[in-house]
Amino acid sequence: MTVNRYLSGNFAPVAEEVTAYDLPVTGRIPAHLNGRYLRIGPNPLGVEDPAAHIWTLGAGMVHGVRIRDGRAEWYRNRWVRSGTVADQLGEPRRGHPVDERLDISPNVQVAGLAGRTFALIEGGIRPYELTYDLDTVGPCDLGATPEGYSANAHSLFDPRTRELHSLAFLYGSDIVQHIVMDEAGKVVRTTDIPAPGNPYMHDFALTDHYVLVFDSPVVFSAAHLHTGVPFRWDGDRGARVGVLPREGGAVRWFEIAPCLVGHTLNAYEGVGGNGPEIVIDVVRHPEGFDIRNIGSSRPTLDRWTIDLRGGKVREERMDDRVQEFPRLNSRYTGRPYRYGYAAAVELYAPPAGPDDDRPDEGFSNALLKHDLHRGTTEAHEFGRDGAVGEGVFVAAESPTAEDDGYVMAYVFNPERGASDLVILSAQDFTGEPVARIHLPTRVPLGLHGNWVAGEER
C-alpha cells in the first residue's frame, strides 16, 4: 500500500493539544529574550481519502513557546478553531461567527501586532484572532476592505514607517489589492492592481519607495477547486515583476523567465552601472513542477536586478542548494543588507519514510546562513532525521552588527522522539546551539512563524 508522505513521518499530524510548563533546557537561553516563539502549519483532524491528501490542507495548529528570564515557561499547541475544526472536535463554536464564504482554518502564518495575535491565510479567507495563550477568539477584520480583501499570509511590517503592508488576492478576481495598515492594524490606504488571469501572488517585497509584486504562470482554476489546490500551470503565460510606487499609482512590469516565486528574502534600491536599480532576492520555483505536490519542486535562492532605466531584469543564481522559507534580520527590511537565512527542509527531499533507502550523505536537514556580500553559505546540519522548520532571526539585546543575534527553529530530535526549539548563534552558525528547549511532543513540519517580543502577561 502506498503511504502518503504528507501524512507520515515528520509530516504526520499530532493528535492532541498539549500544555507543558517549565520546559527542560540543554545549554542556556539568552537572558534578555522575552516573548513567544510561534509557528503554524496544517494539522488535519481527519482525512477521508489519505491517498489524495495534499500537505497544505488541514486545520491550522499553532505551536508556541513562552521564554522569559532565561526560562522556557510553557509550550502550547492549539488548533485554530474555525467552524469546521470546532465541529470536528465536537465543541461548540462559542458564539463566534463562522466565515460563511470559505469555512477554512488559517494555517499559513501566525504573527503579533499591537498586543494581539493573528493566524493568517490567503485568498480572501479572513484572519483569525487568538488569545495570548493561543486559544481561538474568532475571525477578525485585520486588513479588511469593502471589496472583501483582508490581510494576507505574508503581510510585511516596515520597521521604519511602522506600517503593515499586505498584498491580497481573491479566488476568481482579476484584481489584487495592496493594503497598508498602521501599527494598530487600521487600514489607511489601498491600491487596486489589475491582475488578468488571477495569478497566484503568495508573497511580495518592499523597498523605500516601491512594492514589488510577482505575476507567474500559476493561475486560479475554478475547475480545480474541489482538489483543494485551485491553481494550474498556464504554459502560454509568461512571468513578470511589477514595480508599484508605495503611495499608489500604476504598476510598471518587467519580464522574467517563467517561474513561481515561493517567498522573498528581501529587496532594496541602489544604483548600478546603468543608473537606478532594484535588487530582489527570492526563492524561485522552476517552471512546471506538480502544483499539487509542492515537494516535487527544487527551489533555489536567486537574485533579480531590475534596471529601471533600461527596462531589463538580470537574473542570477545565489545558491543552488534546494531551500525555502527565507528570512532576514527584519530591521533591514527594504534596505541594503548582507545576511539571509533559509531552511533546507525535508519537504523538498522526497522520498521519505521507513522505506527510504537513500544514503545519508546529501539528505541532511539544515538551516542556512547566506553571506550575500561574499557569496558564501554556512549550513548548520541536523542530520537526515532532524527535520527542521523555518528559522527566525532574533536580534541580540544591544546588537553591534547585522548578524548579532540568534536563529530559532523547531527541530525534530530523533533520540527523544519529540521536537526541540533550537537557538543558534547567528555569528557562530555552525557551532553548538546556544540552547535546546525540549518540547514534550513532536512539531510536524509546517509553514511560517515569528518571534513576538516584549509582551508581558
Verbal overview:
This protein is mainly beta and 457 residues long. It has a 5-stranded antiparallel beta sheet with strand order 1-5-4-3-32, with no helix packed on it. Strands 2-31-30-29-28 form a 5-stranded antiparallel beta sheet, with no helix packed on it. The chain has one helix at 83-88; strands at residues 19-21, 25-27, 35-42, 60-68, 71-79, 109-113, 116-120, 128-130, 136-139, 156-158, 163-169, 175-181, 187-194, 205-206, 210-215, 218-220, 231-233, 239-245, 252-256, 259-272, 275-286, 300-307, 312-319, 324-327, 339-344, 365-371, 376-383, 392-395, 405-413, 418-425, 435-438, 449-453. The protein starts with 18 loop residues before the first strand and ends with a strand.
Strand order of the largest sheet: 1-5-4-3-32
DSSP strand tally: 32
Overall morphology: globular
Low-confidence stretches: 93-102
What proportion of the residues form beta strands (DSSP E)? 35-45%
